[in-house]
Amino acid sequence: NNYNNTWTLTNPNSSATATRIHFSRIETESGYDYVYVRDANGNQINRFDGNRSDTWSATVPGRTVKVQLTSDGSVTAWGFCVDSIESVSAGNNNNLARNRPSWATSQESSSYPASAGNDGNTGTRWSSRHSSTLGDEWWWVNIGGSTYDRVIIRWEAAYATQHFVGWSSDCSNFSGYWYSISAPGNYGYQIGSHNAQCVGILMRARVANEQLLLLRVRGLQRSMAGCDGTGWPTGKSVASRGQFIPGKDSDLHA
Description:
Elements: E1 4-10, E2 18-27, E3 34-38, E4 44-48, E5 51-56, E6 60-61, E7 64-70, E8 79-87, E9 102-104, E10 126-127, E11 137-142, E12 148-155, E13 160-168, E14 175-180, E15 185-194, E16 198-206, E17 214-221, E18 235-239
Antiparallel strand pairs: 1-7, 2-5, 2-6, 2-8, 3-4, 3-7, 9-11, 10-17, 11-16, 12-15, 12-17, 13-14, 13-16, 14-18
């Protein structure tokens, strides 16, 4: 109560001309307690209140972003968590996967190709073939060797309850983590810092009563530490043994 504090965040990209930040969670008393996003000079860019998740700020000029939390004298709430800071450039917004070459082991039809999983359009998605005996399915993208440590996936209603997120320098031999989830939605996978050429997603088990898999890769990014990880699945580390090529028999095991 009666709180007023400002945090200053600096984009680590020394050549950035504009920046935005991502809130994994905002919870304040609506209409009374506010989270402000400001530029280096204190000019207001955004004002948020109430309950929000998966929220991006507007573009802030330069590398410096100030986040201010103010509250009145009654009713307390959780607060906020900033989990990512990005350099903003025209048409990219630092999503390293956007419009990069991508592939999948199958597709439902020509309306749901692998490229629809990372085209930056929230109205499209990749969909696997439709089958009651659907086995392992792969989707992977070649990002060209940029550095990243977070993969963001939007799982649709036909989601993979058990899946693997991995990286590869040659787009054939993948190492990574296994995850289990129990609901669709946006998930951020903190996989450690890598600059491997490809990122792949192996979908092994799907939600009950579904005969296909649907996903959208929302981003490959550099992220920030310090949040509680709400909404992030817990992974089990594995390493591929020998040569692994998506779409063929693998020796990746949970």
